[in-house]
Amino acid sequence: MERLRFLSAGSQDYLQRVKDSSKNLPSRSLGPWKKMYQPCHHPGKCNKKVNCPCSKIGRPCEKYCGCFGQCDFTFPGCECPPGGCPAKKSKVSCLCASNFRDCDPVLCRSCGSDQDLKRLLPLDSMDLGLLAKKARRFCPNTKVLYQFYNQNYEIRRSNLCDGMGLYASEAMREQDHVGEYVGVYLDGEWEFEMRQTVLVLLEKHFGFQVSEISITIDASYFGNATRYINHNINEACNIMIQTVFCQGIVRLIFVVHKALQPASELYFDYGKNFNVPWKKEF
């Protein structure tokens, strides 16, 4: 019932962005997000008249909002059977997956999202075939929530530029999640420009700005191995960026979109706004 109410009361702008998300560039699957999530808190029902931040940008309210349980446009979660949620966001049978979200253990009470996928496999295993056999009652659309990433990679000197790169130490399959780009989330473009002025002098280029959805992350001082994924274009790109809403945050996830052999360097298209001297060689 809540799912039907959500779809009938849904903002047309938000639902259209979900539909148009399939038109993103091959290297990006950004979903319907425009900005980082900011919980609303105000008297009365959610609408633009009461200065509701969710209504202003045309996105659903969440369980973290002050209106939870009272708003007709609160995201209800999915009602999939145990293990029935698709692992690929391109499929539309699951309400969460089709909206570029990980399933929520609180909202999605029937799909098995309250079970940690990693507990099903040995600590050093990423055998998705074995997982498929064991995960019939567990939700596969929780890779970001439980950090089920393929971390079979290593950092070494790049073949592309005078710096470090990220390489697959074992074969990686298409749709494997490499990891999340983590760092300091910056508030506005002005803060990113201020930091870049200093970091360029220090020769640290770990700022990730996704202008289409107003998200900027600086991994210069706080980050992980994904910050060493280098820029490349066209057929050389084997990694894509995907947005996933999880635990109140729009997260940037690197996903393999071409099967990788061991010792392959990981490449991602940084976009038109990326500009460094060695980029002219492409």
Tally of strands:
11
What is the subunit organization of this protein?
A: single chain
Give the averaged pLDDT, no decimals.
78
User: Element order, helices and strands?
Assistant: HHEHHHEEEEHEEEEEE
Extract low-pLDDT stretches.
Answer: none
Distance between the termini: 53 Å
Please bin the fraction of helical residues: 10-25%
Strand order of the largest sheet: 1-9-10-4
Report the sheet with the most strands, covering strand number, pairing sense and barrel closure: 4 strands, mixed
- Note the overall shape: globular
> What is the number of helices?
6
Percent in strands: 15-25%
Q: Radius of gyration over alpha carbons?
A: 20 Å
Overall SS class: alpha+beta
Write the layout of secondary structure elements.
Layout: H1 2-9, H2 12-20, E1 28-29, H3 53-57, H4 95-98, H5 128-134, E2 153-157, E3 164-168, E4 177-180, E5 184-185, H6 189-201, E6 207-210, E7 215-218, E8 230-231, E9 239-246, E10 249-256, E11 267-268
Parallel strand pairs: 1-9, 8-11
Antiparallel strand pairs: 2-3, 4-10, 5-7, 6-7, 9-10
